[in-house]
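Reply to dn_fold:

You asked what the input looked like. This is it:
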Amino acid sequence: MPPLFVTKFVTTDDELVQIAALSDANLVSNVSDDTKGKEGFVTWAYTPEILRSLHAVTPSVIVKHNNQVAGYALVLPQEAAQLYPPLAGVLQYFKEHVTYQGKPVSDYRFYVMGQVCVHPQFRGQGVFDKLYQFHREQLAGQYDFILTEISTRNLRSQRAHERVGFTTIHTYHDNMDEWNVVLWNFM
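and this is what came back:
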């Protein structure tokens, strides 16, 4: 009997299409205020075409249940900034304004968590933790840490990230929202 969940890198176009659909379904502009408060939301939009180009740089991590993507966690290395403008802006901000252990984050080897999302059908079943554990197991040798930002309105995401080991190292406002910059140290 196959395991209930399989954690792996993305390998098929169908998986990228499922990621794009799950991302779109949970996009901040596509969910109700009630859902935002209870279930969280994602803020960056990803089309299958964008995901294909990002995947060519570094594949992302998914958890699958049978043939369904139960959750995903997008790996955005700094080299992907030329392919995805929102990443370029965030990286510039991080490099100019965010420090860790007294040094600019640009002094470290890091990648950005481009987005993490679990399908509503699979929430509360450990999928989020499986995604991040796989990241640590597979990528810790290449990177010092993961950085990402979480809307301060997205309390569910903030709590979930803290549970797996992320810490808030910086908070800032932009024209869209207030953000916590969170880091998971692999060192």
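Helices lie at 13-25, 33-39, 48-57, 85-97, 127-139, 155-164.
Hope that clears it up.
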